[in-house]
Q: What sequence folds into this?
């Protein structure tokens, strides 16, 4: 029973990390109808900047602020310079651009920061809570990760459902021509969408960093798990991204603990295929056409 509880708690923690990445993917999809495969590279860059602050004596909170601000700028620049020129072309063009951007960012990070993995300090203690004489594999830092992800999810849900900004972003993504007739600055909304998604990704990078080493390719697997979580929950549902991330984290934790860590990647593929076959739009998603 103790092993099952430890695996469940460990799965919730890793699942929260996947959910954070999934939230960033969902935000871009909801605002621009593009799957951003460069998200892993973008959060890697912002995490390296945060690491630079920490390595020079800055606090965890200052590094987090730097990551958020740099993500805001990076997201806006990427949309303006790389995505906008291809946004009216075939949908595959934007996907190719994001793949190219991922390779470019990883190459630049390798040249600037080197390929040596770096350790990143956690925001809170990593010693597990002790309950009834049993030390859980669940620490204050794990609790911090889960609370931040839930908070980000709630904030995104409020933005998209309760604010005029969210309504304009959604209208710009689904019906740009109609939105322009109604006075919506479609180009500006797309930029805002990418900027906010990069901010969420930057937060995810800082949350992930203490549990892995920071390097140009350290977040590739996390991006795959995050994308799977987004598909499970539904690419247009922030709550679905969180539920999908937590569910995937728990399932993979059980697979790793009971069957072995070597088949975790295979299990992820099985889960992804199963969801696409049973419910292609995800557990909380709705079917909708892509903007052309």
A:
């Amino acid at each position: 029973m103790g092993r099952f509880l430890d695996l469940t708690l460990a799965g919730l923690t890793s699942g929260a990390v996947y959910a954070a990445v999934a939230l960033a993917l969902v935000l871009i999809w909801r605002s621009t109808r593009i799957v951003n495969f460069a998200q892993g590279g973008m959060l890697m860059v912002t995490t390296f900047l945060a690491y630079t602050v920490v390595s020079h004596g800055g606090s965890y909170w200052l590094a987090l602020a730097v990551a958020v601000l740099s993500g805001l700028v990076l997201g806006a620049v990427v949309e303006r310079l790389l995505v906008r020129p291809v946004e009216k072309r075939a949908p595959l063009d934007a996907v190719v651009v994001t793949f190219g951007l991922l390779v470019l960012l990883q190459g630049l990070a390798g040249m600037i920061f080197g390929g040596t993995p770096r350790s990143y300090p956690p925001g809170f203690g990593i010693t597990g809570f002790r309950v009834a004489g049993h030390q859980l594999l669940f620490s204050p830092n794990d609790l911090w990760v889960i609370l931040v992800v839930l908070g980000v999810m709630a904030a995104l849900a409020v933005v998209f459902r309760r604010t005029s900004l969210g309504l304009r972003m959604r209208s710009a993504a689904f019906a740009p021509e109609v939105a322009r007739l109604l006075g919506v600055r479609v180009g500006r909304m797309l930029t805002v969408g990418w900027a906010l998604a990069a901010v969420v990704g930057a937060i995810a990078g800082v949350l992930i960093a203490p549990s892995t080493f920071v390097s140009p390719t350290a977040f590739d697997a996390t991006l795959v798990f995050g994308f799977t979580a987004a598909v499970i929950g539904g690419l247009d549902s922030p709550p679905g991204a969180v539920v999908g991330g937590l569910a995937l984290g728990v399932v993979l934790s059980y697979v790793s603990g009971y069957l072995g860590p070597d088949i975790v990647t295979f299990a992820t593929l099985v889960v992804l295929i199963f969801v696409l076959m049973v419910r292609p739009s995800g557990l909380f998603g709705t079917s909708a056409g892509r903007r052309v």
